[in-house]
Write a structure and sequence with these properties.
single chain; alpha+beta; five-stranded mixed sheet; 36% helix
């Protein structure tokens, strides 16, 4: 089973995203992660901009963020595409291209 967590960048503390519309999005995240072989996905709330959730796939924290509105507005139809982009960022980082991603 996939573990999905939300954490604060400032202190690393975990928080829950309990918005009523988030449930469907979280289910799509879980399905995507299972299909792509990730045991856990963590979203880190930006310390200076709470509207951004930085993505961590497995052990890799990425230079890619998803807007918190994806969860609060229940935009489940876009989350798979956004996670595919995050996975692409992970692959670029693994290949040594992260220094070009600004």
């Amino acid at each position: 089973m996939v573990e999905i967590k939300f954490r604060n960048e400032q202190d690393g503390r975990e928080f829950e995203l309990t918005h009523p519309r988030a449930a469907r999005v979280l289910e799509d995240v879980r399905t995507w992660a299972e299909g792509n072989g990730f045991a856990h996905v963590t979203f880190w709330r930006d310390a200076t901009d709470e509207a951004r959730l930085w993505v961590q796939l497995g052990d890799d924290r990425l230079n890619y963020w998803i807007p918190v509105s994806t969860f609060t507005e229940g935009r489940h139809e876009t989350v798979e595409m956004q996670l595919d982009y995050a996975r692409g960022a992970q692959r670029r980082s693994a290949a040594g291209y992260e220094r070009f991603d600004k």
